Amino acid sequence: MKIQAQCQINAPKDEVFKAFSDLSNLEHNVQAITKVEILTSAEEIGVGTKFKETRVMFGKEASEVMEITGFSPSDHIREEAHSNGMHYISDWRFSEDNGQTKVTIDFSGQANSFFAKVTSALFFFMAGSMKKAFEKDMNDLKVKLEMNS
Question: Residue 41, by phi and psi: left (phi above 0), alpha (psi -120 to 50) or beta?
């Protein structure tokens, strides 16, 4: 399963990256996120940072523990999670052109257990809703960033 979503934001890339990687403020800036708990003690967000994100998804609150496994300031964030036999990867990429920042997420899920392989067929039907959820999250941050520019 692979999903891609994009958003164009009228703000410099460094500001956009900072907002998307500011885990401690995501619950205030993204409507669907109700809580973010940073689980590691590092002073700065980067590779190895683990966090628990709680959000409303498909009308229900759900939590996932994620780890940042790739972090290139202003350019890329990779988050990975293992849950219910699935391995999820979210690759966030940031590129700037004339003061506008394009944000792209490539999300994928790989079934690693028999149960996950059987139920992964359901994800095909949820892909459109998941893409809309990513677009809504990005739009929430877009509105915040463009109000402050």
Answer: alpha
